[in-house]
Design brief:
single chain, Ubiquitin-like (UB roll), Cytidine Deaminase, domain 2, 2 domains, six-stranded mixed sheet, four-stranded mixed sheet, 9 helices, about 30% helix
Length: about 290
């Protein structure tokens, strides 16, 4: 009965709506919380570059992270200005002023630059394009203890404020080798959450992320590995499975890739030398 439903009222990154709840044959009407999904238009100068579906919040970080991970800028100095602009989209437009070479790259990418909450940048991201950017292997000396690694999913989940109310968001978080959380961002798109974290690091002069683990709540897909490699992340961990292309790329570039990180179990697909076995961590500390 659509006529009985209350209109959705956006509240920053959470919306409220009226629903029918069925349980054991009983039906009750209740209010439910939804993760907000809205389009964000990203412009380079006056040129519309892309529209990505995202959860509002940390939009400047998302834009900075996306420009960096897609190779339009290579450092913070090339990002001359980044600000929301007034438009008919009610604040859902971010304008970037960047170095001239970045504008040329952006112009070339515009035709194939389409982002959606389910996939990432489509049609452009290939291993060849990443290899052509001359990326180096991540920090070979970084290590993390297996017992610390096993603690990260719970820490990530505990800090997901919006997920706790909606159950509908992905998260990405950076952790030190000690297990200390550095930054966490949520978004309806898992690649957006990663871009927000990387954008946070870029804007705060924290790149490369060479002394941390990047933990993601979804699967470790190709686009996540790509972004993490650009940011210099040595260890990427996820609670789900990686794809074959993700594993191939992690092995080629020397990244440690961990999947199915749940409880006291995980699977290492590449870079096992960065994971310290249980007991060895304490021995080294002593």
């Amino acid at each position: 009965m659509a006529s009985d439903s209350k209109p959705i009222r956006p509240q920053r990154n959470i919306a409220v709506t009226s629903v029918q709840q069925w349980e054991d044959g009983n039906v009750v009407r209740a209010e439910d919380y939804l993760a907000v999904e809205e389009p964000l238009e990203i412009r380079v100068g006056d040129m519309p570059l892309t529209v990505t579906m995202r959860t509002p919040g940390h939009d400047l970080e998302l834009t900075a992270g996306l420009l960096f991970t897609e190779g339009i800028i290579s450092n913070k100095a090339e990002l001359h200005k980044l600000e929301p602009i007034a438009s008919s989209t009610a604040g859902n437009t971010i304008q970037a002023e960047i170095a001239p070479q970045g504008k040329l790259v952006a112009s070339e990418l515009q035709r194939s630059f389409l982002a959606a909450s389910a996939c990432g940048i489509c049609g452009k991201a290939t291993i060849d394009s990443i290899r052509a950017r001359g990326l180096k292997a991540p920090n070979r000396h970084f290590q993390i203890a297996a017992e610390v690694l096993c603690s990260l999913p719970e820490k990530l989940r505990e800090c997901q404020a919006v997920f706790g109310r909606t159950g509908g968001l992905h998260a990405a978080g950076t952790f030190r080798a000690s297990g200390e959380l550095m930054a966490l961002r949520e978004d309806i798109g898992r690649h957006n959450a990663v871009d927000k974290v990387i954008g946070w690091a870029l804007l705060n002069d924290g790149l490369p992320l060479e002394e941390c683990v990047l933990m993601v709540s979804g699967r470790g897909g190709f686009e996540i590995i790509q972004k993490a490699l650009v940011a210099g992340v040595p260890v990427l961990a996820s609670v789900s499975a990686p794809s074959s292309l993700a594993v191939q790329m992690a092995r080629e570039f020397g990244m440690t890739l961990v999947g199915f990180l749940r409880g006291q179990r995980f699977v290492v697909y590449s870079g096992e030398q960065r994971i310290l076995p249980i007991g060895e961590h304490e021995a080294l500390k002593g």
